[in-house]
Design a protein that fits this description.
three-stranded antiparallel beta sheet, alpha+beta, four-stranded antiparallel beta sheet, about 240 residues, 7 strands
Length: about 240
């Protein structure tokens, strides 16, 4: 990596940008992280801002129609969902399955909360990334910028290596055929990971019926798991 060579220069150029690009392209369990968001602004009438607001919107409050504005985590590659919070204690009564022997916590039950990634300006006028939502005390599930290879999934490592090989070989030799062969290999690992990682754990796939969608209501299709119906966008681009 420290060599004074074209190969080292190419690898150093592509290594970290490709890692982050591959992280965005699949629901990698090895990179899924949860964190409390830092509140930046709240709308008038919320517990954090109980004062009555002005009739005209201003930059001092979140962009409409959102109630809260949070800071975008510095290590976030891609937001997944905001965890719903209903502080109602513990469920009681007849368990839903015979496997349930005690109370089931339902602090965080329900569909994921809607959000919007946007930009705003800080006190000095510089642009910053923010997350807009109506969830109080928001918890974000997101793909984290993982830099430690020891915690990386093997499929992620192989996709990263194959993608790196494709970009580097094209930069050094201009061989599109060989470069596309390696990128196609990386895309295969990514496709497998989208299905494999997405189906691990608890996945809820609730689809809004047509007669409800016709009335302008669309509930999120994503539950507690980035399943294969989640739109992860395209794969790595070919030459």
């Amino acid at each position: 990596m420290n060599e004074d060579s074209n190969e080292a220069e190419a690898v150093n150029l592509w290594l970290e940008p490709l890692r982050d690009e591959v992280l965005r392209l699949a629901p990698w369990n090895c990179a899924t992280n949860y964190n409390n968001l830092s509140l930046l602004k709240s709308a008038p009438g919320t517990p954090e801002n109980p004062d009555e607001g002005a009739a005209v919107w201003s930059k001092a409050i979140p962009a409409p129609p959102w109630a809260y504005e949070y800071g975008y985590p510095s290590d976030c590659i891609r937001p997944l969902w905001i965890v719903p919070q209903f502080t109602t204690g513990f469920a009681s009564g007849v368990p839903i399955t015979t496997a349930v022997t005690g109370g089931a916590p339902n602090f965080w039950n329900g569909p994921p909360v809607r959000y919007k990634v946007a930009i705003d300006q800080d006190s000095e006028g510089a642009d910053i990334r923010v997350i807009l939502t109506n969830q109080q005390q928001a918890i974000l599930a997101y793909i984290k910028r993982v830099t430690n290879p020891d915690v990386m999934d093997q499929q992620f490592q192989q996709a990263w290596v194959a993608a790196l090989a494709g970009r580097v070989v094209f930069q050094l030799t201009g061989d599109k055929g060989l470069a596309n062969l390696k990128i196609e290999e990386a895309n295969s690992y990514i496709a497998i990971a989208r299905a494999g990682d997405g189906n691990e754990g608890l996945t809820i796939n609730d689809v809004t019926p047509d007669w409800i969608r016709a009335r302008g209501i669309l509930y999120p299709q994503l539950g507690y798991g980035a399943d294969t119906l989640f739109d992860w966008g395209p794969s790595l681009s070919m030459y």
